[in-house]
Amino acid sequence: MNIRVRDKDLDASTGGIVRGGETLKQHRDRIMDATKQTGCYAGMETMALRDSQPILYNKLFSRLRAGVVDARETAKKIAASPIVEQEGELCFTLYNAAGDSILTSTGIIIHVGTMGAAIKYMIENGWEHNPGVRDKDIFCNNDSLIGNVHPCDIHTIVPIFWEGELIGWVGGVTHVIDTGAVGPGSMATGQVQRFGDGYSITCRKVGENDTLFRDWLHESQRMVRTTRYWMLDERTRIAGCHMIRKLVEEVISEEGIDAYWKFAYEAVEHGRLGLQNRIKAMTIPGKYRQVGFVDVPYAHPDVRVPSDFAKLDTIMHAPSEITIRGDGTWRLDFEGSSRWGWHTYNAHQVSFTSGIWVMMTQTLIPSEMINDGAAYGTEFRLPKGTWMNPDDRRVAFSYSWHFLVSAWTALWRGLSRSYFGRGYLEEVNAGNANTSNWLQGGGFNQYDEIHAVNSFECAANGTGATAVQDGLSHAAAIWNPEGDMGDMEIWELAEPLVYLGRQIKASSGGAGKYRGGCGFESLRLVWNAKDWTMFFMGNGHISSDWGLMGGYPAASGYRFAAHDTGLKELIASGKPIPLGGDTDPQNPVWDDLIKGAVIKRDKQAITTEEMFADYDLYLNYMRGGPGFGDPLDRVPQSVVDDLNGGYLIERFALSVYGVVAKKEADGAYVLDAPATEERRVAIRKQRIATSVPTRDWMRGEREKILAKDAGTQVRQMFAASFKLGPRFEADFRSFWDLPESWILTEEEIGVPHYGSRYSMDVSELPDVKTVQFVEE
Amino acid sequence: MNIHSPTNRNVQVLGIDAGGTMTDTFFVDSDGDFVVGKAQSTPQNEALGLIASSEDGLGNWGLSLDAALKQLQTGVYSGTAMLNRVVQRKGLKCGLIVNRGLEDFHRMGRAIQAYLGYAYEDRIHLNTHRYDPPLVPRNLTRGVVERIDMSGTVVIPLREDSVREAARELIAADVEGIVISLLHSYKNPAHERRVRDIVTEEIGRSGKTIPVFASADYYPVRKETHRTNTTILEGYAAEPSRQTLKKISDAFKDRGTKFDFRVMATHGGTISWKAKELARTIVSGPIGGVIGAKYLGEVLGYNNIACSDIGGTSFDVALITQGELTIKNDPDMARLVLSLPLVAMDSVGAGAGSFIRLDPYTKAIKLGPDSAGYRVGVCWKESGIETVTVSDCHMVLGYLNPDNFLGGAVKLDRQRSVDAIKTQLADPLGLSVEDAAAGVIELLDSDLRDYLRSMISGKGYSPQSFVCFSYGGAGPVHTYGYTEGLGFEDVIVPAWAAGFSAFGCAAADFEYRYDKSLDINLAPDAPADQREAAAKTLQAAWEELTHNVLEEFKLNGYAPEQVTLQPGYRMQYRGQLNDLEIESPLPNASTAEDWEQLVDAFNTTYGRVYAASARSPELGYSVTGAIMRGAVPIPKPKIPKEPLEGETPPEEAKIGTRKFYRKKRWVDAQLYRMEALRPGNRVVGPAIIESDATTFVVPDGFETFLDGHRLFHLKEV
After folding, report:
1. Domain B87-239: CATH architecture, name and number where available
2. What is the DSSP letter of A61?
3. How far is A120 from chain B (nearest CA, A)?
4. How far, in Å, are B480, B669, B677, B706 from residue B680 at the CA level?
5. What residues in B contact A473, CB-CB < 8 Å?
6. B128: which chain A residues are within 8 Å (Cβ-Cβ)?
7. φ and ψ at A747, to 5 degrees?
8. What is the CATH topology of the domain spanning B11-85+242-267?
9. Thinking of the domain B512-632, which architecture would CATH place it in?
10. Residues A456-509 pLDDT 10s
11. Which residues contact B62 (CB under 8 A, 6 or more apart)?
């Protein structure tokens, strides 16, 4: 296909802005039609530039990609927010005229897809004519209804023109610290509808001639709590976009517009083929099924929501089926997933699919050839009405990651089985951690300003074990493999919270022949805050990841907070105070040191704004990753090393690993090898003694299902999944051999299911054309 | 390449590059002529190798060591010993004292140290991430009870009993150094200094001698991971180096020198070996090469230079863009985040001496990170080395001349390499000996190539706009391998490649740099009296630093009027986390108008580095630091310029042929003697150009041209 339309091919009246004279809409339609007809991006069954001038093609790629990476490294120094400057929660991506990404920097690369979706929304909804798309315009977007992950990820999008014609776009995104939601912090909990999520901007033109409009500046800066961070984040994004625009102009002036134009489309097809080849090389064709769950514990009094219909405990359900075909194409189907809900964990289809693709770049396609080609190489089916493809414009998104990370960890297991089968043992990964806790809150800070905090320490969770070694401890997050827990001295500049502990969290990684990486925990003392609040956000009752091939899941979360601690007096009198980690939460040490304090120590790991005063305590616990293989196969000395290194609580050496260790006079553990051998034999015998044949077990389980003998939350979860996923219900029915008369509905359970019958999608609003990216 | 001059010499400057394998010396006389000497490094007593290398070099001028040393005015030392000690984790056994409750932070490496130094692909490829062992293990880390907040206010007073307990335990554990790093000590050092004094007291009581390093005394800057790593380096790696430098200085003084040796420092100038912050010299050797490349670039007109240096133990890359060195203030080095002003450069622990092993379970080939260093490899029988090194692979493949290593000073035995590679690598991998050896070289080359590429692209450039300088003893052996396909504008191998870092040291300025943290904050609409006060605060800091700089020079015999001073400052918009280093447009500042000029200079630089739209003057300005640099002129080497002769090398340059293996076939490589090649000569591969000090490999598909400056230009044909 000829990507460029020459002027003579078009009616003079058309007068579009895209190079060659098409309108944006004509251009995208033509590219999409050709893609559909041929299966190749833009109908490119051959790649003219790459085939005839491979050196030039590679030069273009390497130069542009390096420039995009450098723009990110440079621009992030402008920011004042540690989330951007230290954690690197930003990303820059270059797009072709149709809004498909060509290449990207590192960072939060989920937004390769979400910013592309914003460009496509502008294209489909006639932005070209109103408000117009001109050279040096600046657009801003954070609308989750058209693809953004959550409102705190703010996009700046700048069109790129060459000789008066649009030839592409560049997008920059940062995770801002506050979006003016009901509660402070970028991912506030408590609101149950989008209207409480904070400032929402839909592809708004916020500047022209490279200058921001004054009305935009005044409005946006008062819509959020943390104005200075907001301003400098915006400058970071704009500076990065302008650096990349300049780079593109330089490259074109040196290599010619024709070469660049071809490259901008061939690179996408190249990316699609790259994924296909990788799938062929790394996996085994077939179907892979797996499932993910996580808790939404909203019945607890510490979750203060405005609506009675949201006040219940539910479970997120995300069964998935990966189908890999012999030709390297594949399909991901999430039939059976639960409905969106009255909480802030819903996700748009674009963020769901883009995020999966981020996961793939960490394992299946870790190459510099990361672009929308992978999206065109992947078929998704997300049933409409599920939490990953909501059919109602009221849904809230502010912490969609709670569900996303819990659904995706299952995909690691599916792919890892395939890697294992092919012998790529080093690539096996038992799954990503639940990337929490999120320490958030706000009030007046140590500078006496209105403030919000959002610790990003959980960018350094434990990682899943591989089939040859332990997971890495306190290292990474699914949404950004370049983990960084940040220097404490920098967090203390941003938060009126003093560190009393930062310690590796023992036993937080799942046990296994190779254990999951451990997370860590930070103990924070409230200091110099006024009218201060904080809350917790993470999994508590459910381990959202699973172990693989006998490995254990990571430990789930819990919360620890203490008020009225009396620490001021304890400090003054030189008495022992809580320091370091809450090493064994089942046998706590701190609680006795602060007798009389009001302590919150339970599995309620999601809360809403709670008042804190100086000398109160808050424990920020970052989760570990899941394990691989039977713990009884772990090299006993490794278990002893874990004890000595603080990665394992002593009693689990014996009970989980069957390892007997003795403590020497110097405090170090040493292995008792014969006793260990004996103990392991005994555990294996015990396992056989308590096991039952699968058929017998299933018979018993079937009886329970027939009797609907399950917790309210489990019944509600299945009833919702059955309603949205008829095939899931049919599979369930046939697997358990259930009679036709067995029916489970939400109506019979007796808990609110507000929203299960009536919904209205954003596409039903007047003059709105949403862009469809998945099969529904 | 040595230039001989008949006149009576006055030897003025000595540059030293003590690598892990070879010690190079570079002497410059009053006419700018220079001579290179080489000898094997002698890590047990570096002075021995240094004297041997000097005698080797001066021999070319027919000078005795004693005669030359009496004339010498100054000497600059650089070496890789400290870096290698860190990369290989072979430093001193140090104890670490931090806040109680935070004892894990050093080993946690801020998570970032799990992928530092990785190329793009591996940065996103999670399963490749890994941590190196911490410099101080957890069991030698102790916590003391105290806390100071970000503004320097005491939150928890220091509990001295916890300090004594920590000190006694570490002393009992026989540590060789104790490092103290408490949160926010850069802001309020009182607790940290008190801990230091108590620890010192306890050491005194124990009767032992253990040096103590408090971070506030060394690197008083924010970010505890950086500051702690850097301070640990003082104890872990720099103290052994100081002992070495003292020995060298004494050995030379015994032979008649009258000056104290200077050491190449991370900021690109040279400092005395007595300087307190000696960890600043951690990458001195490689920086010497960068300074040399910059100097050569200035003389010959190269603006963008990629400097690459392979020695026996490491591969170092630095970029000069638009003729300027880049200074990083919180750089990473050896996969550690640090807080030093550093000529931006990166280093991997892979060189010609790197050991090669097979993973017993996966049969994966592992290069390094440890190295045979000066002991070459199995091919040198007397070395006692039993594990195959990269040099053994060179030996098998015909890259190296077994009879002319160091001009024949060390006799190597190819058969020993063949046998070792067969049993250790080839048989387990099911390969022939030459294919196993070639595989290792290919692997190393592609690692180095990716590294070079990621360094350049990480800066946002492409190799096409860069000239690549390749030097170091083993550089020219690998030049073709790690530049192939990258498309550099030009690839240059100086004929004195092996002595290039020493050459750079000889070309370095004698420069002291002092930094002081400041906390000047001004609102955008600050009245004139506040601006004037701000200018005066900065000026007071400059005066204090000037005093320090002049004192240092006085020790070295320079009068104040000989010193050129350049003030600088670090500025940012209020509230930002990153500042910019600005060279002051004014020699001093005292008025509101002066302040405005400083602000203007900052705004101009900010717009250039970032983008005009990123300027945020409405936030106001902060000056976070004052800088004073002072330099004195020293004699620098002259670059040779000879007329071009014909393209065909003279017959006497040809010294036979050798079997050479690459890409699955043996070919006959033409051998040349480097010193006999003439300016203008063109050599087409397969060829090997040998000199005593280095070997330049030109495989088939490549050719090289020797220009009038004695620089080889390598290109793919």
Report:
1. 3-Layer(aba) Sandwich (3.40)
2. H
3. 26
4. 20, 21, 9, 5
5. 108
6. 366
7. -60, -35
8. Nucleotidyltransferase; domain 5 (3.30.420)
9. 2-Layer Sandwich (3.30)
10. 999 999 999 999 999 999 999 998 888 999 999 999 988 999 999 999 999 999
11. none
